[in-house]
Specification:
about 190 residues; alpha/beta; seven-stranded parallel β-sheet; globular
């Protein structure tokens, strides 16, 4: 229901799809039971001005031009989620320049082995602890046993996808309280 809030805190959208695919996706997002109002579009470097205008027409306030630098992505995600002030330097704890941020316990729900390896390595370099679930159902099992600060949830997975898993998580939170941030991942 609307009172429980959106199941995802943020959607990273690859804007290199065809125009008809983008329109269908944005229409689907608008008709989704819990509208996702925090979308970051990753756009191709070919004709970025036209793509930025199109994003703005669709109500997408944040865009990153590919190839995306890690720091730029981190800055935008932190800004969109309100995790830290936009002007705060967001360097990974392992760099030695900012050790004031507490390492987070993160659950990565991702079915692609390559993506798992890349994200786990990156998050661990930043000083975070990472657990991995191969699908939505496994993510719910892990969440039932362990406490996490954040979930990175792949939208499309075999079996229970990220939308269904996050909706189930939100129903559980309604019953027992709390709210775990979930960031949607999609190609």
């Amino acid at each position: 229901t609307r009172e429980t809030g959106p199941p995802f805190s943020l959607l990273l959208l690859d804007f290199s799809q065809t125009e008809s695919d983008r329109i269908r996706l944005m229409q689907a997002l608008k008709s989704y039971p819990h509208p996702i109002d925090r979308v970051v579009a990753l756009i191709d470097s070919a004709d970025p001005e036209a793509n930025i205008r199109r994003c703005q027409e669709l109500g997408i306030s944040h865009q990153l031009i590919k190839p995306v630098r890690q720091q730029d992505l981190l800055d935008v995600v932190r800004d969109v989620l309100g995790v830290a002030p936009a002007d705060e330097e967001a360097t990974p704890p392992s760099s030695g320049s900012d050790r004031t941020r507490k390492p987070q316990r993160i659950l990565l729900a991702e079915d692609n082995l390559f993506n798992q390896q890349v994200l786990v390595e990156l998050l661990r370099q930043w000083g975070h602890q990472v657990a991995v679930a191969d699908d939505g159902e496994q993510a719910l099992v892990v969440l039932g046993k362990e406490a996490f600060d954040l979930v990175l949830m792949d939208v499309q997975m075999p079996g229970m996808d990220g939308f269904a898993a996050t909706a189930a998580l939100r129903r559980q939170e309604q019953e027992r309280g709390g709210h775990l941030p979930v960031v949607a991942l999609t190609a």
